[in-house]
Design a protein that fits this description.
Blueprint lengths: L1 H16 L3 H13 L4 H12 L6 H12 L3 H15 L1
C-alpha cells in the first residue's frame, strides 16, 4: 500500500507543481480504476485544464460522476480542480 501512496504522491507533485500532463492522466486513470468519484472528477478537470489528451472513456466517466452530484458538490469539485492549477 505504501508504494501506491508514494507513487500517487509523486504523480501529484508532477501534475500539480510541474503541470505534467502524463502524470495528470495517470492520476485520472488510477482514480477511474479505483472507482473514485469526486477525486476522479477533480483529476479529470485538472487534466483538462492542462490540455491532456482525454478520450471518450474519460469524458463518459466524468459525466456519470457529475450527474450524481448536487450542484453544491459539483461547485466544490470545480473549485478544488481550479486550486490545483494555480
Amino acid at each position: 500500500m505504501l508504494s501506491t501512496r508514494v507513487e500517487t504522491s509523486r504523480l501529484s507533485e508532477l501534475a500539480c507543481k510541474q503541470r505534467d500532463v502524463s502524470a495528470a492522466v495517470a492520476l485520472l486513470e488510477q482514480s477511474i480504476a479505483l472507482k473514485h468519484r469526486k477525486i476522479a472528477l477533480i483529476r479529470y478537470l485538472h487534466a483538462q485544464y492542462l490540455g491532456a489528451p482525454l478520450d471518450e472513456r474519460h469524458h463518459e466517466y466524468a459525466r456519470r460522476v457529475a450527474a450524481r452530484l448536487s450542484h453544491e458538490a459539483l461547485a466544490r469539485v470545480v473549485l478544488a480542480a481550479r486550486a490545483r492549477v494555480r
